[in-house]
From TrEMBL:
InterPro entries: P-loop_NTPase, Sig_transdc_resp-reg_C-effctor, TPR-like_helical_dom_sf, TPR_MalT, TPR_rpt, Tscrpt_reg_LuxR_C, WH-like_DNA-bd_sf, WHD_MalT. Residues 980-1044 form the HTH luxR-type domain. The keyword Cell cycle does not apply. It comes from Ktedonosporobacter rubrisoli. One of its GO terms (molecular function) is DNA binding. Keywords: DNA-binding, TPR repeat, Transcription, Transcription regulation. TPR repeats lie at residues 691-724. This is HTH luxR-type domain-containing protein. GO terms for biological process: regulation of DNA-templated transcription. PROSITE patterns: HTH_LUXR_1 (PS00622), HTH_LUXR_2 (PS50043), TPR (PS50005).
Length: 1047
């Protein structure tokens, strides 16, 4: 169990103050932080825990530094690493300093979580915890009582117009829940319009949970950072959410997630994803949504299912009694019954209106009464909102000194204010003091609970005006100063934001200033570095720019094309979008060519290749564009290597060209390209591409007959996928490993891999199991259970033939091939001919390997029909092709069929020649299934060949195959080592390294550490090692190694 801190200093949302507690000193709560008693107490302790306003927790420790006395440091452990921050001496240990270090740790946590932080992230901290509770808070007991039943529901919905107290009610109620220790963690998200993006939205939510013990969702955060992996398959968002939900389900204690201002979310896909999330919530997590209108969620169904409790504006509006109580608490005002009735008729329980009325009345009863009297004389048609806007000008603004009026009007253009920024706008030096004075005077300015560290050593406190007050000031500023002056202010703000590395704010201010050229240059500048601008934000900026500005900037042309391609369905953009994308890319190419920026021209071709790869019928177009890009990436003048910013584009192109080469049978070229892509992935740390390339290399080496290398790549993918919790890649790796075990005739291992894949599928709510059903059919066939295999194949085909997913269509070809083989074994030649005809009709779409399987099936049909001469003639045509392409699996099967065909024709010498050649090629990699599947005919031929084989290794290998064929359960009996004291198959390089360490006395854990692999991988190597040596434990390994002179 984790140790509980003896001393704790934490921010209390309920009391709006810091509270001190200790398990040893009962009276410690009386000590006030930063007082003399506080400093004396610090001298007596060595450490305490600190919980900041934003929920960050870390440990504060005192350390002696040689002769210089003691210093305090902050420590936080996260993702297996401990971070340390210097706090100072005891005299430096202020609340502000403690909060500063908390913000520092929060920023570090967001960075480590694998997020591609946009330039607005320094402002993120304030969005991840509730706002300050206002003064004059009245306890709404009847509403608290209704909310108390939250554990019964999945969702609480607070729906009311602006200013009805949704946020305040939720905030105060949750503060009560925390005080009562009813919840262990509160995740509060203040949503913005910029959150209308799947990745941004969920990244923010999961980030809010990183301060909960165990940091649930940290793997999901990493997956979100690269959720789209062009040109490879996109990771389903549901898969990532399942990772997060599974983490939440493991947490101890209850949690509430609050989504404030949900009405700002308009993206339909976000509503769908949130619906999925809410419907699969674990019992200990509850969601609260605060919104001005009814969200586009399945509320009707949830009401019927009992998932939902709701509060509306009717529930939230202040009663007359609550209005009177509020006035007494805030301004000690006691209005008459008639005045309260006037207020109720005027405001109709609108809490924000009441607060504004108090401010407008200068916090005095007489002022409120005068205002009520004035409002009563206004035209009835004039809304209270407009009356307040007018009042702010005539009674508030006009009453201020001229200098302060200018300050209020000009700074109202800014969404948020800080002293340095206002100095720039006002050309002054005392804006910080002005802001502090305005806040203290209650002049519609509030301090935000955040301290933003820009790219300087300065901590910047931020403020904002009340929304209605800012609206009135902006309208008056435009009237007094004119539009041009407001644009100048926005332009000045843009330069300030740029200097402080607040990229998004700098760009948005430039757009507000209608300075499109500056906005374009800023986008180019900030996008060329490490920052990645999110597509939905980029799209909103480009939508504000004239087409001429975009066309004049190649970078913007490329970005505009990217946003158009991926704003809806990437594989199927509309005709008008395709036309516009093509034109934009052409302009980008021409612009970069004219300036000699050839690397950027390469990016254009890479994106064209990516677009083509998304269309199933444009493989050649994708390859041509990818090849052009690869030729351009390394030839920019003055550069002799590719720039880091283009690594990912280069990897995409290598993947496209390498995969196409593999499909077309150019295996040597494919190997070179994919290995180069692998090196790129390892250079730039792209884990998504790394797993994908490892999978493709595994498939390639399987085709080339290099089974042990294929095993290494599949096992590496599995280890990476498990550690990074990419279960889709894990299942693909498990399929590859299962097929290798099938080739080695280790049917128990095949079954184990299938079981592992099923477990992963169930754990992550995945529904597609076609790959698993295909493996089960192969396993049944290997066990000789042909009827069971045929039933599985028939059921699987019925599902696959109604699915249009490309990956499923590829599997369809393999399943049809297996069906044909089963039909041939059942002597149903007419059905086999029909299946072959179906495969042949789409032969132009098949890969080289699939075409070769088709031809081999045609050979088998000829042999089954007694047409040996025709079969031999076809085999003679096919064999040189597989030899030239180094397609080992196909070559072995062709050699074996040639041998069997000649044996049927009583041509013993020819039969022996071809079978011996097959054995000579296959023994080093341990192929078995390719021989065993031929049954009695192979056993008869092999028995006659073995006496003539002189090479000990080949003879031992043949004897192992024969033993397996003649065993009582040939399908499931794994081969063993045989005569001549030789293993029937040699050890791979990695197995030899494992053997040397094992003989040296290393444990499994020590072997894993030495070879930098997982313990599970070590166990797999040992399993194969034992099988090859014909032993069952380490002692027998030592004996076998001595006999074989391996030690």
């Amino acid at each position: 169990m984790p140790r509980r801190a003896l001393n704790l200093l934490k921010w209390s949302q309920q009391s709006q103050s810091y509270e001190l507690s200790s398990s040893k000193a009962s009276a410690i709560h009386e000590i006030i932080p930063e007082s003399q008693a506080w400093r004396e107490w610090l001298d007596t302790i060595s450490s305490f825990a600190f919980h900041s306003r934003c929920g960050m927790r870390y440990t504060v420790r005192k350390e002696a530094v040689q002769q210089n006395g003691s210093y305090w440091y902050g420590y936080r452990s996260w993702q297996g690493r401990t971070s340390k921050r210097y706090l100072g001496r005891t005299s430096d240990l202020t609340l502000a300093r403690l909060e500063e270090i908390a913000n520092n740790f929060t920023a570090e946590a967001a960075s480590r979580a694998g997020q591609s932080l946009s330039s607005t992230e320094p402002l993120l901290i304030s969005r991840l915890h509730p706002p300050r509770l206002p003064l004059g808070l009245i306890e709404r007991t009847h509403l608290f009582a209704r909310l108390a039943a939250w554990r019964t529901y999945k969702l609480t919905l607070l729906r009311a117009p602006a200013g009805f107290g949704k946020t305040t009610l939720a905030n105060s109620w949750l503060a009560q829940q925390q005080k009562q220790q009813a919840i262990s963690h509160l995740a509060w998200i203040s949503l913005q319009a910029s959150d209308n993006d799947q990745l941004h939205f969920w990244r923010t939510i999961i980030s809010a949970y990183q301060s909960w013990q165990g940091e649930p969702g940290k793997t999901a955060l990493t997956r979100l950072a690269s959720a789209f992996r062009p040109p490879f398959a996109a990771v389903p968002l549901e898969t990532i959410l399942a990772l997060f939900l599974n983490d939440l389900a493991k947490q101890a204690g209850n949690s509430i997630l609050v989504l404030d201002d949900y009405h700002l979310i308009t993206e339909p896909r976000l509503h769908e994803a949130l619906s999925f999330f809410i419907e699969h919530l674990p019992l200990q997590v509850h969601v609260v949504i605060l919104t001005r209108n009814e969200p586009n969620l399945p509320l009707t169904r949830w009401r019927a299912q009992g998932y939902l409790q709701e509060l509306s504006s009717q529930d939230l509006r202040f009663s007359t009694i609550e209005t009177a109580t509020f006035l007494e608490l805030t301004v000690a005002a006691s209005l008459s019954a008639a005045q309260l009735a006037q207020l109720d008729a005027l405001l109709q329980g609108w809490a924000a209106g009441l607060r504004l009325l108090i401010l407008a009345g200068k916090m005095e009863q007489a002022g409120i009464e005068r205002l009520l009297s004035g409002l009563e004389q206004q035209q009835p048609s004039n809304s209270f909102r407009q009356q307040l806007l007018d009042y702010f000008i005539s009674e508030v603004l006009d009453a201020q000194p001229e200098a302060l009026q200018r300050f209020l009007l000009q700074t109202s253009v800014l969404g948020r204010l800080t002293g340095s920024l206002c100095d720039t706008i006002m050309d002054g030096q005392n804006s910080s003091e002005v802001l502090e004075t305005l806040e203290l005077s209650g002049l519609f300015l509030e301090a935000l609970d955040e301290a933003v560290r820009a790219q300087t050593s300065t901590i910047l406190p931020w403020y904002r005006y009340h929304a209605l007050f800012a609206e009135a000031m902006r309208a008056e500023a435009q009237r007094r100063f004119g539009e041009e002056r407001l644009r100048t202010i926005a332009r000045q703000a843009s330069y300030w934001y740029e200097q402080h590395e607040l990229a998004d704010a700098a760009i948005e201010a430039a757009l507000q200033a209608h300075d499109m050229e500056r906005a374009a240059l800023l986008i180019e500048r900030f996008s060329s570095g490490a920052q990645q601008i999110e597509l939905h934000i980029l799209q909103s900026w480009l939508a504000q720019m004239p087409e001429a500005t975009i066309d004049a900037h190649p970078t913007l042309c490329l970005y505009a094309a990217i946003t158009l391609q991926f704003q809806a369905e990437p594989a199927h953009p509309s005709h008008s979008n395709r036309t516009r994308i093509s034109a934009l890319l052409q302009k980008a190419e021409e612009g970069w060519r004219s300036s000699g920026q050839l690397t950027e021209v390469g990016v254009v071709f890479a994106f064209r290749a990516l677009i083509a790869s998304l269309r199933e019928t444009a493989e050649q177009e994708a390859v041509e564009n990818a090849s052009k890009a690869l030729n351009l990436f390394a030839v920019e003048p003055g550069e002799n290597h590719i720039r880091p910013t283009t690594w990912q584009w280069r990897t995409i192109c290598l993947g496209i060209v390498g995969t196409t080469a593999m499909h077309q049978g150019r295996f040597e070229e494919s190997q070179q390209l994919l290995l180069e892509a692998l090196a790129d992935c390892q250079t730039d740390g792209n884990q998504e591409f790394l797993r994908e390339i490892c999978l493709r290399l595994g498939t390639l080496y399987q085709i080339l007959g290099k089974l042990y290398q294929a095993y290494e790549y599949f096992q590496r993918t599995l280890s990476l996928g498990l550690s990074q919790r990419d279960y889709t890649d894990c299942q693909r790796a498990l399929r590859g490993l299962a097929q290798l075990s099938l080739e080695w005739n280790d049917l128990d291992a095949v079954e184990q891999r299938i079981h592992e894949a099923l477990e992963l599928m169930e754990q992550n709510n995945q529904e597609r199991r076609e790959d698993i059903d295909y493996l089960l059919a192969l396993l049944s066939f290997a066990h000789g259970q042909n009827i069971s295999a045929q039933l599985r194949v028939s059921a699987l085909l019925a599902r696959l033939q109604t699915t249009l997913i490309p990956a499923v269509q590829e599997l369809l070809t393999e399943v049809l091939s297996l069906q044909t083989r089963l039909q041939l074994d059942a002597h149903d030649y007419l059905a086999a001919q029909n299946s072959l005809h179906l495969l042949s009709s789409s032969a132009h779409e098949l890969s080289f390997g699939q075409q070769m399987v088709l031809h081999i099936l045609q050979v088998r049909l000829l042999l089954a029909q007694g047409m040996e001469k025709e079969a031999i003639a076809l085999l003679a045509q096919l064999l040189p092709v597989t030899q030239e392409k180094q397609y080992m699996r196909g070559q072995l099967e062709l050699l074996i069929l040639l041998a069997l065909a000649h044996a049927t024709c009583k041509q013993k010498a020819e039969a022996h020649k071809w079978l011996y050649k097959a054995l000579s090629l296959a023994y080093s990699e341990g192929f078995l299934r390719v021989f065993l599947q031929e049954g009695d005919a192979m056993a008869h031929l092999l028995r006659s060949l073995l006496p003539a084989i002189r090479e000990k290794t080949v003879r031992a290998y043949g004897q192992a195959i024969l033993r397996a064929l003649l065993s009582t359960d040939a399908a499931s009996t794994p081969p063993v080592s045989l005569n001549d004291n030789l293993p029937f198959e040699p050890l791979s390089g990695q197995e030899q390294r494992v053997l040397r360490l094992l003989l040296a006395g290393y444990s499994n854990l020590e072997i894993a550490a030495e070879l930098i692999i997982s313990v599970n991988t070590v166990k797999d190597h040992l399993k194969h090692l034992y099988r090859k040596l014909g032993v069952s434990n380490r002692r027998e390994v030592r004996k076998a190694a001595r006999n074989l002179k391996l030690s």
